[in-house]
């Protein structure tokens, strides 16, 4: 497991995505394909980006009955993605079924990462809408532990939670952290942010960076700056 910078390719078409990726003539960055791009273009976008030599985190956050998730994961596994995810709220049984579906006949499988509580959910909405009365930090750590016990590789979490996840689930349990901004950059709609350097210090394994790279005047330079701060 290597530390890496994952670029969130939050574009609504293949055309815009390839215009962006064409700027990278040297190293092929690890890219995240989310719901917007996947639903716009379908599985072909995954195959085409993979054929260009990129690693892919397919961020579709599955959450359904165990049998459905198992079958869907088998399809994603055949797409040869490197990392994918689901909602831990689907229960341990769903997560175990997901691992079964994801595992190829030769025993290999993409990394599987759980979403705990979305960072858009706060204590108030969790209590009122989901009727979960425990402190949100405790809920996040409980979901992370359930993910680990189900055989998953790690969680998506805020950089501020990464250290505690490692304390709870061990250093080998991967933390994938969005909400990264350069010290001199725009925060935008992210509420709790860290620089790539801070994310490295607190022990994030992968940072997911979107607009600080995709909306930069020089995306390649912005990506290289992230790598220099986070990986090197
Ligand atoms: O542009 P920005 O760097 O904010 O992009 C962050 C990416 O990480 C987006 O694709 C967003 O959907 C995703 N993400 C997030 N916060 C979470 C989970 C995912 O920002 N808690």
Q: Characteristics of this structure?
A:
single chain, 232 residues, alpha/beta, eight-stranded parallel beta barrel, 8 strands, globular, binds cytidine-5'-monophosphate
How would a crystallographer describe the biggest sheet? 8 strands, parallel, barrel
Oligomer kind: single chain
Task: Catalogue the ligands.
Answer: cytidine-5'-monophosphate
Separate helix tally: 11
Count the E strands. Answer: 8
Find the structural class using helix and strand composition: alpha/beta
**Helix share bin:** 40-55%
Strand content: 15-25%
Specify the overall morphology.
globular
What do the pLDDT scores average to? 95
Structural overview:
With 232 residues, this protein is an alpha/beta fold. It has helices at residues 14-21, 35-41, 43-51, 66-78, 92-102, 123-130, 136-149, 159-169, 196-201, 211-214, 219-230, and strands at 4-8, 30-34, 56-62, 83-87, 111-115, 154-156, 174-177, 206-209. Helix 4 (66-78) packs parallel to helix 5 and helix 7 (136-149) packs across helix 8 (159-169). The longest helix has 14 residues, at 136-149. It binds cytidine-5'-monophosphate. Cytidine-5'-monophosphate is lined by residues 8, 10, 34, 118-119, 156, 178-179, 190, 208-212.
């Amino acid at each position: 497991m290597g530390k890496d910078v994952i670029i969130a390719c939050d574009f609504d078409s293949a055309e815009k995505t390839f215009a962006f990726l064409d700027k990278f003539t040297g190293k092929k960055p690890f890219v995240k394909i989310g719901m917007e791009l996947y639903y716009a273009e379908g599985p072909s976008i995954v195959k085409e980006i993979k054929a260009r030599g990129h690693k892919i985190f397919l961020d579709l956050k599955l959450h359904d009955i165990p049998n459905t998730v198992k079958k869907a994961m088998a399809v994603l596994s055949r797409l040869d993605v490197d990392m994918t995810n689901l909602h831990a709220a689907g229960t341990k049984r769903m997560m175990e079924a997901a691992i079964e579906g994801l595992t190829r006949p030769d025993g290999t499988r993409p990394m599987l990462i759980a979403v705990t509580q979305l960072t858009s959910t706060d204590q108030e909405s969790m209590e009122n809408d989901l009727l979960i009365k425990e402190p949100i930090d405790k809920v996040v750590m409980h979901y992370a532990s359930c993910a680990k016990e189900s055989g998953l590789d790690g969680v998506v979490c805020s950089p501020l939670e990464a250290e505690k996840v490692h304390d709870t689930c061990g250093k080998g349990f991967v933390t994938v952290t969005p909400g990264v901004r350069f010290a001199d950059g725009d925060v935008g709609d992210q509420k709790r942010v860290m620089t790539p350097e801070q994310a490295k210090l607190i022990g994030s394994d992968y940072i997911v960076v979107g607009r600080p790279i995709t909306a930069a005047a020089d995306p390649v330079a912005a990506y290289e700056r992230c790598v220099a701060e986070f990986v090197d």
